[in-house]
């Protein structure tokens, strides 16, 4: 779907996947006015297909657009575009289990010009790809690197928007994590470098027995839809679920004294991933016994059962396509 200043959204079309031809002076290539989303369509037990909370992705896409001086795409158009593509690609939705059809809606400046200003022309596109189970051989805990040299986002910055620049800025820290033998980066706050924010592409949860806590939305972390869903699902299962503030010292101390029983990350791609070990310039510890925890696995099962249609959709989160 195209957007042009003065005209609004126009010319929606469903076309075969093909390369785009980009002008070398395309504004996105230079000024990175670009945003995206990620959501999944799951095969349901009766053979139909459904997406999980697409209206939440549409709302976050609008929030990202506002932050990046881009036009807001109405939720109906966002969802209609995803639905049209899924219907076209229905055969590509895997038949069962954790596998899904991953959808990537995105928008970028399509205008040509070399002046720094908000563009007047944009293109909204949705592409899709089948995604296998994130852990084909069984859930495996990840190792994380606490990044003290780099920050992902600052107050007043773009941390709460799903914009390409945030990911570009995170790559050097991801490479640093890998050089220390870690799978993922954990981002800390930009001022004191001690408040836990989030992981590279997932939010974090800390489990204290039957209480689970996730870092509060400070404006510099992404408001994950999985994070939000788990606050509700955990309460449904009888846990206390809340937002809070946790430092790296709290993490290390509470793991040592045994009050912090499990830590996990959550996001659309991996659903829920246990954290098994933590490293930084100054510390190195195993989280709990390094194995996936009970609460982590129970929440993972509950969320996946809901998404794959194996439990009742009590919150009206599933969007059926028939
Ligand atoms: N944080 C970041 C930086 C992400 O890229 C993602 C993935 N969208 C998340 C958190 C998790 O968000 P969601 O649960 O909506 O996938």
Automatic annotation (TrEMBL):
Pathway: Amino-acid biosynthesis; L-leucine biosynthesis; L-leucine from 3-methyl-2-oxobutanoate: step 4/4; Amino-acid biosynthesis; L-valine biosynthesis; L-valine from pyruvate: step 4/4; Amino-acid biosynthesis; L-isoleucine biosynthesis; L-isoleucine from 2-oxobutanoate: step 4/4. It holds the Pfam family Aminotran_4. The keyword Lipid metabolism does not apply. It is an enzyme of class 2 (transferase). Keywords: Amino-acid biosynthesis, Aminotransferase, Branched-chain amino acid biosynthesis, Pyridoxal phosphate, Transferase. GO terms for molecular function: branched-chain-amino-acid transaminase activity. The keyword Amino-acid biosynthesis applies. Its cofactor is pyridoxal 5'-phosphate. Its EC number is 2.6.1.42. Belongs to the class-IV pyridoxal-phosphate-dependent aminotransferase family. This is Branched-chain-amino-acid aminotransferase. The lineage of its organism: Bacteria, Bacillati, Actinomycetota, Actinomycetes, Kitasatosporales.
């Amino acid at each position: 779907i195209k957007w042009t200043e003065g005209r609004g959204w126009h010319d929606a079309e469903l076309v075969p996947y093909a390369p785009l031809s980009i002008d070398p002076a395309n504004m996105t290539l230079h000024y990175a006015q670009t945003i995206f989303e990620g959501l999944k369509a799951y095969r349901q037990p009766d053979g139909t297909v459904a997406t999980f909370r697409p209206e939440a992705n549409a709302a976050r896409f609008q929030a990202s657009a506002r932050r990046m001086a881009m036009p807001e795409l109405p939720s109906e158009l966002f969802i209609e575009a995803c639905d049209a593509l899924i219907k076209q690609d229905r055969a590509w939705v895997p038949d069962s289990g954790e596998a899904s059809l991953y959808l990537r809606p995105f928008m970028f400046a399509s205008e040509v010009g070399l002046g720094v200003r908000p563009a007047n022309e944009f293109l909204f596109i949705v592409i899709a790809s089948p995604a296998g189970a994130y852990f084909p051989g069984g859930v495996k805990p990840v190792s994380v690197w606490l990044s003290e040299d780099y920050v992902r986002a600052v107050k007043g910055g773009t941390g709460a928007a799903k914009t390409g620049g945030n990911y570009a800025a995170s790559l050097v820290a991801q490479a640093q994590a890998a050089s220390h033998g870690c799978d993922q980066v954990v981002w800390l706050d930009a001022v004191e470098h001690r408040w836990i924010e989030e992981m590279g592409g997932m939010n974090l949860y800390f489990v204290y027995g039957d209480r689970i806590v996730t870092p509060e939305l400070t404006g510099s972390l992404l408001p994950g839809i999985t994070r939000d869903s788990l606050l509700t699902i955990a309460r449904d299962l009888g846990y206390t679920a809340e937002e809070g503030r946790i430092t790296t010292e709290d993490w290390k101390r509470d793991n040592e004294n045994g009050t912090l029983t499990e830590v996990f990350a959550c996001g659309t791609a991996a659903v829920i991933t246990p954290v098994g070990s933590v490293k930084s310039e100054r510390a190195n510890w195993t989280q709990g016994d390094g194995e996936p925890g009970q609460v982590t696995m129970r929440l993972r099962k509950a969320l996946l059962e809901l998404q794959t249609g194996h439990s009742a959709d009590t919150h009206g989160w599933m969007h059926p396509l028939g």
